[in-house]
Amino acid sequence: MAPAPRLVDAVNERLEEFLADRASILRSISDDLDPLAAFSERFLSGGKRFRARFCSLGFDAVRGSRRGHDAAATAERYAVVSASAALEVFHAAALVHDDLIDNSDTRRGAPAAHRVFEAQHRDGRWAGDGEEYGRATAILLGDLLLGWSDELLDEGLAALRDQSAARETRVEFNRMRTEVTVGQYLDILEERAWLTRPEAEQRFRAERVVVHKSARYSIEAPLTIGGAIAGGTASQLEALRAFGLPLGIAFQLRDDLLGVYGDPAVTGKPAGDDLREGKRTVLIAIARERLSTGQRRLLDELLGDPALDAEQIRMLQDTIRDCGAVDEVETEITTNTDRALAALGSSGMDREAARDLADLARAVTRRES
Question: What pLDDT was estimated at residue 67?
């Protein structure tokens, strides 16, 4: 089984090759498109490649030691690397749109896409409103990346000899694309409609966003896409889901904590960014259950104010921590991680792949960015 660094190297090489080809297509249309290609190449040059690694391990979990070195195996490897790269491009598209929706200024310690193009407008002293130009360009860039992710996936699937596996892979990819899109909608809905929803539903609605916007898209879908490429049976794909969903929930709950308490030097995002954006996360839902009426009213009043200063951020951080919400989320992370590992242990997956999945599970739930 190829170690993670070799998989990441292969995905990076595939991305470089693909983006260079697409950049040449853009350049054949107009040099004015160079900024789109340059941002895409730069944005996709980094990242942890978690989705790519889960995709590869989903393949290994099904295929395991039965892999060969003939033409069919080479085609499968190409399909896995292409699908892994497609997931990374899809993720980039989602981040571009997510930053736009959330009005985020930064991503990974650098200006978000819409801010990059806003600055291009300003530096060029062009006509019209720079902020509008930046937003419009980021929408189109995200759409372009979405299309490219499909192209990458299809190039890999076309190489497979088992076209039933190719069709099942496409089904899994399409399901992921639908779920993350509607999950994003549910997220923005909760930020605005929470006030009219019953208090008893707040946590359930936050958990629903976790599942559909992140958990399935971040871990479950990459696993099943890799498993489908390997020709996994229905029961094998279900075993991957049984591991992937609770782990994906734990992954997002960790992200929720980092959105409030993460170190900006590590996360690349401002401290307390989710508080300024007004994210109605599970962390916030739990805090609201635990706070007194006065404290809850103050939290609701401040949450989502983009002008929150450092002192107000610290006050909200302390309020959420002191009521026990952080400890409860940490318990939920541990519970879901344990559930995933238990499912992994009884799955009958390839032993080496299962070991690597367990290691990766611990890495994604204990991360600091």
Answer: 58
* Cα–Cα distance for residue pair 106/320, rounded to 1 Å: 24
pLDDT digits (tens, 9 = 90+) for 186-231: 999 999 999 999 999 999 999 999 999 999 999 999 999 999 999 9
Q: Which value, to the nearest 10 degrees, does the dihedral of the CA atoms of residues 155, 158, 160, 162 take?
A: 140
**Phi and psi torsions of 51, nearest 5°:** -65, -40
Whichever domain contains 32, its CATH number is 1.10.600.10
What's the whole-number average pLDDT of the chain? 94
Asked if 209 contacts 185 with a C-beta cutoff of 8 angstroms, the reply is no
- Tell me the C-alpha distance between 111 and 108, whole Å: 8
H-run or E-run covering 81: helix 71-102
Give me 363's structure tokens. Answer: 């890495």
Range of the domain at 125: 4-365
pLDDT the model gives residue 339: 97
Number of domains within the chain: 1
What's the pLDDT tens digit per position in 46-85? 889 999 999 999 999 999 855 567 888 899 999 999 999 9
- Are the CB atoms for 104 and 168 separated by under 8 Å? no
pTM recorded for the entire structure: 0.94
The answer on pLDDT for 1 being more than 70 is no
Contact assessment for residue 256 and residue 329, using Cβ atoms and an 8 Å cutoff: yes
Q: What is the CA radius of gyration of the chain?
A: 21
Return the closest-CA partner of residue 156 out of 94, 93, 87: 87
Counting Cα atoms < 13 Å in the Cβ hemisphere of 199 gives 10
Task: Tell me if 205 sits within 8 A of 283, measured CB to CB.
Answer: no
Q: How far apart are CA 45 and CA 181, in angstroms?
A: 24
* CA distances for 270 relative to 95, 107, 108, 111, angstroms: 16, 9, 10, 12
Confidence of residue 237 (pLDDT cuts 50, 70, 90): very high
Are 59 and 229 within 8 A, CB to CB? yes
110 pairs with which residues across the strands? 107
Q: Which of 157, 191, 21 is nearest to 86 (CA)?
A: 157
